[in-house]
Amino acid sequence: MIKKIFFIFTIIILLGFNKAFADTIPPAASFIPFNLNMTTDNTPTLTGIATDEESIITSIECRIDGGAFTPATVGILDSSTEAFSFKSPIALVRGIILHTAEVKCTDSANNVDSTNFASYSFYVVGDRPEIVITSGGEKIISGDPVDLSPSFEVKVISNKGLTVYPLRAFIDNIFQENLTKVVDADNLGIITALYNPTLLDGTHSLKVDMTDNLGNITTREVIGLVVQSGQEISLQGDPLSFPNPYNGVGNVNLSYVLSKDSNVALTIYDLMGNQLSKQNYSNGQNGGKAGYNEVTWDGKTTGGADLGNGIYIYLIVADGKVAGKGKLTIVR
Amino acid sequence: MGFPSSAGTSIDPSRTVYLGRTLGMGGAHTALSDDGEGLFTNPAGLGETKYLQMSGVSRRLFLDETAYFILGFSMPTEYGHIGLGYASAYTTGSYATTRDNDNRIIINPSLEVMAYDSNVILLSYAKNFPQQENEFLKKLSLGCNLKFFNQSITGGNSGAKGTGINLDIGVMYNPVNWLKSGLNLQNMLGGSINWNNSSDKIGGYYKLGFAANVLGASTEALYKHEQKLIAAFDYDLPHDSLDSAALMHVGLEWLPIKNIALRCGLNQESQSLGLTLGLGLIQGNFRFDYAYAARPGISGDNPHYFSISYIGSDNVKIEKSLKKKESAIKVIEPADRYITSMEIVKIITEPKFAVISEEKKIWESTGTSEAAEIKEFYDLTNVYVDGKKIEQTGTVEVNSQPMKYGRNVIYVTGVITPDSIAITTEVKVLRFDPFKDTEMTYWAITPIALNSEIGLIKGYPDNTFRPEKGITRAELLSLLIRTLNVSPEALDEASIYEKFTDVPKDNWALPYIKIGSDMGLVEGYPDGTFKPNRVLARAEGIAIIARYANLPTKEGIAFSDLKEDFWANKYILPAKESGWLNYLKEHYEKDIFSPEEDFSRAEASYVLYKTAPVQKMVDDFWMQGATEERGKVPEWMLPKNEITTIEAVPQINATTEVKAEKKDSD
Fold first, then answer.
1. pLDDT per residue over B39-71, tens digit each?
2. Mutation site for A-interface testing, chosen from B94, B98, B196 by largest number of A Cβ within 10 Å
3. Span B142-166, mean pLDDT?
4. What is the pTM of this model?
5. Which of A4, B603, B610, B613 is the most exposed place for a label (fewest CB within 10 A)?
6. Concatenated DSSP letters for B533-561?
7. Among candidates A309, A311, A328 on the partner chain, residue whose Cβ is nearest the Cβ of B8
8. According to CATH, where is 2.60.40.650 located in chain A?
9. Looking at the domain that runs over A240-330, which CATH code has it been given?
10. What residue ranges of chain A are covered by domains with CATH 2.60.40.4070?
11. ipTM over cut 0.90
């Protein structure tokens, strides 16, 4: 009888403890990385493990590159440690584009992390090294204007492993020796090279080639790079905006290609020529650098008012002169 | 229809006016608004226009990106002013976009390029109240614009349309004739442009303006001048607008001649302040306006603006018809009926004639008209002043011919050209030979001189008058009887009857005393005497003269020193009210009567002069001369031309000759 009472008393105590120290921590999860964080499968299957200290895992969902969360493939969810796998529902772009997979887990105490998801970044690559050439953070493509002394950054990735020595760069088919080459400390499959040549006015080409550890070679060339140091600033093509039409929610991106570095004022007007907003960008920084520039605007006037539906005109004024003008449409 | 919670603010293409006159004046037009542009700047201004107005322009704005068109029309009717306006702004060339493989923004070729059209129709009404008696309402004009908005976006992935209604309210008030103030409250209803899926506010400005007619030909200018100069100022306060800053506009318009207007101004926009210049050319019923208005910060923008307006101001027919010509000769010195002792006086005169015409303005567009009488002055020719020929024009200053003692007439004559009509003005001057003891500055010199001239009073044989000496009963009676023009036979008859014991037959005053006492002007004493040499007290003198003049009696106390039961009150009060006793205050500077003081000879002259019978005698003297002088005007005083008089001629036009009747001179 006493034992019975003691037993019941213990149960009550334990239940009380349970209530006092309930599980409030969501489950944790991690992905199993690819080799060198790269995969050649453009619809890769990611695997990982979810764990919870106290409760049973009741759901595991994943997404890639900010898409919608969808349930991962799991076994019977009856424990606090569960393995999962998730196949990308869309074909991912190959190249030096970092893709991000995220996982969201829920336990039996209904704990779920709603903001700080466990994530994993990786590349989708081909059989040969992938090369991208950028300047000022923007990818250089053929025909882009560049500054007199551009800062080129060459990035090479390969899931076969890389060493710096085979990386070669040519300006106008002339081999360049002064590259600063660095292997990524965390990933032997990534090499970055920095190069600051001094160019003359005119048109130039830049070629980079690289061999991976298994002898696969990739060559990347951009031609028609225009240097116009002595001439007036101008825009290449027309300024464009995205999204266009813009629904007034969030930001809109405005892009333009400058012929050289300059101080830029981007001013937005209504049809009658009344100035609504103005943003300034410094020489050499994004918005004021030679080549492709893409800046954002919140869709409001300087005073914080929302614009009505209609078409608005923006001027790119570089070094005091109107270099070009674009139009964007607001339709709410 | 459900709209999202956040709404934007739309543009109103009629809110900023890109017409030549408004822009040339820096955008300051709220208190002017007296033409077709006024429909947009302040509808109340239309209430002051007299005829049809229209203004418009079509051009590309803002680096040629916007097709802009604006047209305003208004006209007066018997119920007020109505107007119709239209403003639109259109642009295209907004491309739908996507991203390429390099994540760069590129044109999406599968979607149409987008275009945006924003237009507004205005229905206007304005009214002023010039016929109101209330001074405030007379100077007030009210107006309003009912606005219908229509916007559309085409192309892209789908189109959209939006419509809305709003109202402008305008007020104009002219506190003084050369200053105007105006208030235009744009888009007051708080209306919205309602789109398929959203709703945009329609903002505007509260516009306050002032305009001053600094120079101008009419009375509505601060300074009268042939040229015209207007200064204007506007202050714009935004409401529900994309602009958050208040704006100012200042402008000047100068018309050195009536067909050319030169303008300048300072135009403040949301982020800049720019100088504007303008030119207006007025030809017939049209005005062509040009404005230069560069926008700082937008290099490459076309700063030249042209617009055309129908103003109708020259479509006015003016009819002028002559009513009459009349003498306008002004003799500044001497005044008419001037009394002097001098032989020669200075004459200052303006020998002019007045042409009185009726000028009628008829506005052909509305048929309304207004007429006004105009008086214009011209110099006479062939001018003679007091017989002397005068060659100068304008104000003439000459000395008179030597004057005789007595009444003299100074004539100013001249000829109206080209009609060859002579006109004359005369002033009369009495040259008086003062008594030895009575200066021309003596306070009673006028009544003394005139009474003497008409023979009522005489001096003593030693050529003195002894003005301060008390007048006797006999002297006053004889003076009064003399005014009655009693025949010599009546005087003789009165001389044979000794009515009073102390007035024997040989007393010079017997007939006057007899007649005066018989008339009841004065009574004898109970003891049968008259006491002819007793000096009259003031009260007695006033009573006698009041009886002589048949002045109605009136009970009451005229002065503080008179008792209520004083026997002469009934004569003294009406005498004071008739102005006979003003000399007491003016000369003696006293507010009391002093009834027992001697009634002086000067006082008797003054009071007698004030009576109606003597006033008539004096008037006859001035008009026709002293009895013995009538008809005797010296030859040298006659004007060299024959004198004619002008009669009023019937209303005729300016080409018809004026007829006049010749009259012989006296």
1. 999 999 988 887 888 999 999 988 899 999 999
2. B94
3. 93
4. 0.59
5. A4
6. TSBPBHHHHHHHHHHHTTPPP--S--STT
7. A309
8. 2-124
9. 2.60.40.4070
10. 240-330
11. no
